[in-house]
Amino acid sequence: MLLRLYRREHCALCELAAEALLDAEATAEELYLEDDAALEQVYGWRIPVLQRMDTGAELDWPFDSWKLRKFLM
Q1: What is the model's pLDDT at position 64?
Q2: How far apart are CA 20 and CA 40, in angstroms?
Q3: Who has the most CB within 10 Å: 19, 37, 51, 65?
Q4: Following CA atoms 62, 63, 64, 65 in sequence, which dihedral angle do they give, to the nearest 10 degrees?
């Protein structure tokens, strides 16, 4: 399953989200808001946000590995 993690550089919550992905044995393409003005407009301060590419569903922070596994079902 393809996932995207929308995040910022030097973001402690984003690092925790990346760790939750590892705990859930999932991987995601990481997109940094600093690199894309359009993403900045959409996600602003909502980050970190995890998106499923198959359904477009999004999971906003806070989430842990349990909540993440449920999102991936």
Answers
A1: 86
A2: 23
A3: 51
A4: -160
Residues 6+ apart with CB under 8 A from 30: 4, 5, 7, 18
Number of helical (H) and strand (E) elements in the chain, helices listed first = 3, 4
* Burial of 10 (C-beta count, 10 Å sphere; 0-12/13-18/19+): exposed
Q: What is the end-to-end Cα distance of the chain in Å, rounded?
A: 10
Is residue 18 within a helix (H) or strand (E), and if so which, with residue range?
helix 12-23
pLDDT by residue (tens digit) across 35-70?
999 999 999 989 999 999 999 999 999 998 889 989
Q: What tokens were used for 43?
A: 């996600």
* Ramachandran quadrant class, 57 (left: phi over 0; alpha: psi -120 to 50; beta: rest): beta
